[in-house]
Amino acid sequence: MLSHSRCLSRTLGRSLSALSQGKYVLAGRTASGLSAGNRVVYRNSQSRFESLSSVGVFHIRYFKTSAAHRDEVVTVNTPPFSESITEGDVRWEKAVGDSVKEDEVVCEIETDKTSLQVPSPAAGVITELLVPDGGRVEAGNPLFKLQKGAAAAASVPAAEAPAAAAAPTPAAIPVAMPAVPPVPTQAAQAKPVSAVKPSAARAEPAAVAHGARTESRVKMNRMRLRIAQRLKEAQQTCAMLTTFNEIDMSNIQEMRKLHKDAFLKRHNIKLGFMSAFVKASAHALMDQPSVNGVIDDTTKEIVYRDYVDISVAVATPKGLVVPVIRNVETMNFADIEKTINGLGEKARNNLLAVEDMDGGTFTISNGGVFGSMFGTPIINPPQSAILGMHGIFDRPVAIGGKVEIRPMMYVALTYDHRLVDGREAVTFLRKIKSVVEDPRVLLLDM
User: Fold this and answer.
1) Strand-pair partners of 87
2) Are strands 105-110 and 115-119 parallel, antiparallel or unpaired?
3) Residues 208, 219: Cα–Cα separation, whole Å
């Protein structure tokens, strides 16, 4: 009798072990012990217990595991915005039926200042988009539904299927497999926004005839709308005036040529021209505090700052952004180059946060990278001035009574004439010229 109990205990142990591993069990025992026909079989069906007391037999059939938890459908909501932002427009990078990995970007929410990426909280399949492309959302609004684990189901080894199929199915119990949504064989690649917009079936447009007069319309994104609004505000509020000068770039080019390799080896970053202009601007702003100040139109007061936060204009496909380099007055050339490089990388990857662009006491815009020779920049409100850099071109200039060819750059300072007088503006621009032409001025604090 003890032997029969041990056999029964072992059989139940095997059955429970199989259950704990997520498998399906069919076990049997007679009153007199284990028969030759008894077996443990695995099934993928519904659980069922049957007790046959008249013959002393019990069976355990078809236990269902918790696989449904892996296929749970969750709703992903709009993440919170910063304090100065209340809403944004959705731009989808995934479509219904696309497989996503954990932390893979599903959509971007474009706000007035930047774009916020929304990642997938888990691996799965997008089952529903709750906001149309371009739709407006606020923090907490539902965005999309995700079926967890559905993407991972496609990668289950096919070798496990024959083992389950080989087991016989009782005739009295129909096998009902749960419906599984179709899953792509591999994770979908990120698509441009235009590729996931729903569109009706239509014929391909015919080739445009030579000389045809066609046009197209594209909705302005929120960032472009905000840029347009701020530029018009600057024109309507500030009394803008621009003064010009030219800078001989010979010395700074020679310094860069002489020290660029050692600078790269020491700081692991290239030495450019922007660090010289940023540092020169900080030096000039501390010398001319009115250019670093601002008019508070609400209180009718002038706010003077004893720190320098310089905004650097960066062009992106979605519009102009101005990340801020903070406390420039305390930085050296290497610190400035590293900060500019980091902010530029974030801008190119669309990772700039609102905090990266808030504030700023002065702006530098470098149109020279695009080949600009001359131009008048517009003030970035609520600031009082902006420096415009342009391209470096060889020009004939008078040096010591002789004509020489020198690499020259035109620079322009646009300022708010309500606060900054012409004397301060011209003195400020000449201070920048002197520092860039001879950086040793910084060492002598001149």
Assistant:
1) 138
2) antiparallel
3) 23
Grade residue 88 by pLDDT with cuts at 50, 70 and 90. confident
Does the pLDDT value for residue 171 go beyond 50? no
CB 24 within 8 A of CB 43: yes
Task: Give the C-alpha separation, 432 to 248, whole Å.
Answer: 12
pTM above 0.70, yes or no: no
Least confident of 44-58, 143-157, 194-208: 44-58
Distance CA 375, CA 386 (A): 12
Give the residue, 295 or 30, on which the prediction is more confident: 295
CA 336: distance to chain centroid? 23
Mean per-residue pLDDT for 398-413? 96
Give rounded-to-5 percent helix, strand, coil for the chain: 30, 25, 45
Locate all alpha helices (DSSP H) within 358-406, ordered by sequence.
none
State how far the Cα of 110 lies from the Cα of 137, in Å rounded to an integer: 10
Per-residue pLDDT at 2 exceeds 60: no
Inform me whether the pLDDT recorded for 47 exceeds 60.
no
Q: Is residue 210 annotated as a catalytic residue, yes or no?
A: no
List strand residue ranges (DSSP E) for 135-280, in order: 136-138, 142-148, 240-248
As a whole number of Å, the end-to-end CA separation of the chain is 105
Say which of 267, 335, 417, 438 is annotated catalytic.
417
**Is residue 358 flagged as an active site residue?**
no
Residues facing residue 325 across a β-bridge: 310
Q: What is the mean pLDDT of residues 195-209?
A: 49
Which of the 8 DSSP states describes residue 206? P
List the alpha helices (DSSP H) in 300-421. Answer: 333-348
Q: Which DSSP letter does residue 304 get?
A: -
**pLDDT reading at 337 higher than 60:** yes
Residue linked to tokens 């903070």: 326
Q: Residue 193: CA atoms inside 13 Å, Cβ hemisphere, count?
A: 14
Catalytic member of 394, 421, 438, 445: 421
Task: For tokens 């080896």, name the residue.
Answer: 265
Token readout for 409 is 């750059």
| Residue 95 CB burial class (10 angstroms; 0-12, 13-18, ≥19) | middle
Q: Does pLDDT of 168 surpass 70?
A: no
Which of 115-124, 177-186, 362-371 has the least mean pLDDT? 177-186
Contact in structure between 311 and 363 (CB atoms under 8 Å):
yes
Name the residue among 187, 189, 221 with its Cα closest to residue 91. Answer: 221
